[in-house]
């Protein structure tokens, strides 16, 4: 695997036994491409606490790819976070993705003791020193709740100052937004790697809904083309693969320090892009 660039695959913990078995099959397949790490999401408020823990330990221990748990602070007490950190540290986990999280509607905002991701990063450093490589989230197209571009940048810098080691971006379909974000944070003295998060396009209606919620803009020409395919899944996937492959080429040629694939627990859409890019195996 390339020293300079890092490649990773993200999963979510499955809800059912069958889903979990499928996830493990997908992970074993992706493991054969020797990614630098896997990561596994965490339901804010602790809704997936046990499933995330179990999935991380299995991916790391049995599938044998270093695996980073996501950890979010809204809705979890310091005692709960401390217990999870100790568990991961004892199990030899070395990387963590530290997030604020989004509480499911109805759970309220103020149930956790830590309000923002920078406070979680600080907490992890206080509790565990330099043990973990801490990833944080970055938003080239601006986090939907941010007051402004500048305040979101300031927040990103706060997370880095609190001790983040590197960052993974929210997905986007516009490489310029990534390059501009990196240029701006470099000018603010941030020198940690900012790795683009890549969302393969497989299902237009789900993607449109999700993108609205997380503030990722689907360019009009991509939207119009995807809409024109209707239920023709093959055409959607073929076009999506081409668009994302070309964007990844542009990102890597422009100096992106790797790629992080949001797999949604499927191997093929990410692997198709991986193969098109001739990434190292
Ligand atoms: P923060 O960095 O805390 O920022 C949240 C918002 O608050 C921003 O608008 C920021 O500008 C603002 N802000 C920060 N500090 C302050 C302050 N002091 N005063 C006022 N405003 C402030 N969600 C999950 O629930 N589970 C997951 O596993 C998960 N994994 C993710 C992985 C990646 C790579 C990414 C990009 C996102 C992930 N998310 C996950 C989604 C994430 O939790 C949401 O985007 C969430 O809304 C913000 O989390 P954050 O860590 O970026 O928050």
Automatic annotation (TrEMBL):
CC cofactor: FAD
CDD domains per the UniProt record, alphabetical: MTHFR (cd00537)
Pathway, per record: One-carbon metabolism; tetrahydrofolate interconversion; Amino-acid biosynthesis; L-methionine biosynthesis via de novo pathway
Sequence similarity: Belongs to the methylenetetrahydrofolate reductase family.
One GO location term (cellular component): cytosol
Protein name: Methylenetetrahydrofolate reductase
EC top class, as a word: oxidoreductase
Species: Metapseudomonas resinovorans NBRC 106553
Record's keyword terms, sorted: Amino-acid biosynthesis, FAD, Flavoprotein, Methionine biosynthesis, NAD, Oxidoreductase
Gene3D superfamilies per record: 3.20.20.220
Molecular function GO terms recorded: FAD binding; methylenetetrahydrofolate reductase (NADH) activity
Reaction(s) the record says it catalyses: (6S)-5-methyl-5,6,7,8-tetrahydrofolate + NAD(+) = (6R)-5,10-methylene-5,6,7,8-tetrahydrofolate + NADH + H(+)
Gene Ontology BP annotations: methionine biosynthetic process; tetrahydrofolate interconversion
EC numbers: 1.5.1.54
